[in-house]
Write a structure and sequence with these properties.
The protein is built from 15 helices and 17 strands. By secondary structure, it is of the alpha/beta class. The strands form 4 sheets. It has a 9-stranded mixed sheet, sandwiched between helices. Strands 12-13-14 form a 3-stranded antiparallel sheet. Strands 15-17-16 form a 3-stranded antiparallel sheet.
């Protein structure tokens, strides 16, 4: 067999033994329509299309194969993302979740999240996925303002979003919603009202994402042609600060830069990504991260996208850790300093700039550090 550089690298890491995967991501790249800002690996495909059947069947085969290879024994969090998993319909979701339940230990202590959009989430689907092992729902609301939803090109309206949340809460205690901020045409009042509505709907988790104009999207073309204003960094910062104020007053804790949760409802899958936990991604364009003490690799569609040595791993661990409110421990910093001599000097400089602080044996990001994330994260990653 002739190995490509990618397959040779992968084989070398496997031969050296890699740490067990602890998180599993399953990608379902189908939507009822593509939103104007989206650059994810998704496609607008009719729900009855045989293309979806073929894809789900292949995904089930991949799950069985990884189970036979012993790669699913340590999984403690599963995430069905997309795309819109709820768009594929209950028969296909049943096949996928049944396969998952036979292939790994899908018990209540394993966090199993499924993304859904309001237009395709039904009471019967909520009942059935709950019975098949899903215990957390993440609903792509983005806004409770119909005008803003129209700008984004979403397929649902505000009433549909509220209905979907109420439907989810019939079975699920752990319900999250995504909201977007900094959208041209979205007032501060509109954004704050959406945050308050999410709270009133009784969700346990809220993620808030500033709008990013991605290349080759309809929004990108609209900005270039002057039809849409570019997002304003100051407005985004104002909205993010408003979210923190409103949600904290309502009892939600900001545990990472973009996410808030009631105590005990932090997303374990999110935390895995920010804390160097090896994860396996299955499905089109799903990324995997595999590592051992000396090397970390990310692989997507059979190609190595990152290949880090021990020093680069240490720098990345500090950078990603600063996305979390708890920051990074002195132990991690000391281990990093053995590989990266300027670690302490850099952290001291960042503290002088007000981007982080040292509290109770941990380096934590400040509010300014989160708002100036590129500066904070870049300085740490550049240590390598």
């Amino acid at each position: 067999m002739i190995s490509t550089p990618c397959s040779t690298s992968c084989l070398r890491l496997r031969e050296a033994m890699h740490d067990s995967y602890r998180a599993l991501y399953l990608h379902l790249p189908f939507c009822v329509k593509r939103c104007s800002y989206c650059d994810f690996a998704t496609a607008a495909v009719p729900a009855e299309s045989p293309q979806i059947d073929e894809y789900v069947e292949d995904l089930c085969l991949q799950i069985r194969r990884k189970s036979k290879e012993g790669e699913l024994g340590g999984i403690s969090t599963v995430y069905l993302g997309g795309g819109t998993p709820s768009h594929v319909g209950m028969p296909r979701l049943s096949m996928l979740l049944y396969t998952l339940g036979l292939s790994m230990r899908l018990e209540p202590d394993v966090e199993c999240t499924m993304e859904a959009n309001p237009e395709s989430l039904t009471s019967s689907m909520v009942r059935d996925i709950w019975a098949l092992g899903v215990n957390r729902l993440s609903i792509g609301v983005q806004s409770f303002d119909d005008h803003v939803l129209g700008i984004l090109g979403r397929a649902h309206d505000a009433q549909g979003a509220k209905r979907a949340i109420a439907c989810a809460r019939e079975r699920f205690e752990n319900v999250s919603v995504d909201l977007m901020c900094g959208i041209p045409g979205q007032s501060t009042e509109s954004f704050e009202d959406s945050v308050k509505t999410a709270i009133d709907c009784g969700v346990s988790h809220v993620s808030v994402y500033p709008l990013t104009i991605e290349p080759h999207t309809p929004f990108d073309a609209m900005v270039l042609s002057g039809q849409l204003a570019e997002p304003d960094d100051d407005v985004e910062a104002e909205h993010m600060q408003a979210a923190e104020r409103i949600l904290s007053q309502a009892g939600y804790e900001r545990y990472e830069v973009a996410s808030y949760a009631k105590p005990g409802f932090e997303c374990r899958h999110n935390i895995a990504y920010w804390t160097g936990v090896p994860y396996l991604g299955l499905g089109r364009s799903a990324a995997s991260m595999t590592q051992n003490a000396e090397r970390r690799m990310r692989i997507q569609d059979g190609q190595v996208t990152d290949d880090l040595d021990a020093g680069e791993m240490a720098a990345e661990d500090m950078m990603l850790g600063m996305r979390m409110s708890r920051g990074i421990s002195d132990d991690l910093v000391q281990r990093a300093a053995q590989l990266l001599p300027k670690t302490s000097e850099t952290l001291d400089a960042l503290a002088e700039q007000g981007l982080c602080e040292h509290v109770d044996g941990r380096w934590r990001p400040t509010e300014r550090g989160w708002l100036c994330g590129n500066q904070l994260y870049g300085a740490l990653f550049d240590l390598a």
